[in-house]
Design a protein that fits this description.
alpha+beta, 4-stranded antiparallel β-sheet, about 55% helix
């Protein structure tokens, strides 16, 4: 396996941490800018209010013109509304209003703006003539409002890129694994071909010899030779699209178990049960499906240390699917390892490459368009693997 893939969990963690650091730094920096800009806008509105206050007692017309042009007109971004002490609207600035609306409609819209402004900032009081007061209501400018949401938009962009990187990495890893699987399978089939041809010739020679005419071992030898043919065919099918046929799933399962029973510990009891009529079919490739049953059952026998029971129950799942539940009385799988049992290389045995369950899942998920998963497991009690097939 390529080293980078063996470190995939660590790489994912690093990517997440880097994304979080970038996100936190972005939000912090943007909040600092927003805070400074907010203070600047508040100062601008306060200056606007002071300009109004000064105009009341301005000593000359020149000063009034200067204040109006240089101070009051300087605010081109912050929305403000000037009202009297009864909140009757006197003036407004930088408020987006529809064109060609009536004065009544304009007053309604400005009143709504005042309510929004109250929720953002307290109004600035402007003392007026004869002891009365005016109020300057204001809210954040469009630029400041956009800047507040900017870090969240940036976080969404970062998250999108992170997801794209994750899926690209996962796709690359799966593609590389596929190439390894196919290459290994084809090479295995090729290597088996030559000795298998020789074995078949020797089998035919021995079977025709009078010395072994009534020897029962010849029949068993023939079964094993045919089994080797099937195994070679299985490996040849990896990487190509297998042919799925409507098969009697109960019969196929029983045949797979019958072959296994004669080749594993006699202290393991097998039972095959079905909750539906025996003529029910499922779309399977018999050669590959037998391989799945064999791999799961052999793992179960190892988990039981050659002593226990394996129950296989076939159940209808609606009108479209059939479930094959394989339950053993082995050691069980800890919850922390359930998600890892189908990973290539995962094994709890001293010997073995940890490819059996990974290959079984690939056959069911990819080639049969079904599902293979751990339905139930409890340490010290056993495990149930569920195969879901299409009818």
């Amino acid at each position: 396996m390529i080293p980078i893939y063996s470190q995939k969990n660590r790489i994912k963690l690093v990517v997440v941490i880097v994304a979080l650091i970038i996100g936190a730094a972005t939000i912090t920096y943007t909040n600092i800018l927003v805070s400074k800009l907010s203070e600047r806008e508040q100062e601008l509105v306060q200056l606007y209010a002071k300009g109004l206050r000064y105009m009341i007692n301005a000593p000359s017309d020149d000063n009034i013109v200067f204040i109006e042009e240089e101070i009051l007109s300087a605010n081109t971004t912050v929305p403000v509304i000037l009202t009297d002490e009864n909140e009757n609207i006197l003036d407004s600035k930088n408020i987006d209003l529809p064109k060609n609306i009536s004065e009544k409609r304009k007053a309604e819209l400005l009143q709504r703006e005042i309510e929004k402004m109250k929720s953002e900032h307290a109004p600035i009081v402007v003392p007026w003539a004869e002891g009365s007061e005016n109020y300057v209501f204001y809210k954040d400018s469009a630029l400041l409002s956009q800047l507040r949401f900017y870090p969240y938009v940036q976080l969404i962009v970062i998250a999108c890129f992170a997801l794209m990187a994750y899926f690209a990495f996962s796709y690359s890893r799966r593609a590389e694994q596929n190439r390894v699987w196919v290459g290994l399978a084809k090479e295995t089939a090729h290597q088996l071909g030559t000795p298998l041809s020789s074995l078949m010739a020797w089998y035919e020679y021995i079977k025709s010899s009078p010395k072994f005419e009534h020897e029962p071992i010849i029949e068993e030898l023939g079964k094993d030779v045919r089994r080797l043919e099937i195994i070679t065919e299985r490996f040849s099918n990896i990487g190509s699209v297998p042919l799925l046929r409507d098969e009697n799933i109960l019969e196929v399962t029983r045949n797979a178990i019958n072959y296994l029973q004669n080749r594993i510990s006699r202290k393991v009891a097998f039972t095959v049960e079905s909750t539906f009529p025996p003529e029910i079919t499922a779309k399977v490739n018999v050669s590959l499906f037998d391989w799945v049953i064999e791999n799961i059952c052999k793992n179960a026998v190892d988990a039981m240390e050659g002593r226990g029971s394996i129950n296989i129950q076939l159940v209808l799942l609606g009108k479209a699917n059939i479930a094959v539940d394989i339950t053993d009385t082995g050691k069980g799988i800890p919850k922390s390892k359930v998600a890892s049992v189908f990973l290539p290389g995962f094994t709890t045995k001293k010997r073995g490459w940890g490819l059996g369950l990974a290959l079984a899942k690939r056959i069911i998920d990819n080639y049969h368009r079904g599902k293979l998963f751990v339905k139930w497991s409890e340490v010290g009690k056993g495990t149930t693997f569920r195969i879901v097939l299409n009818r």
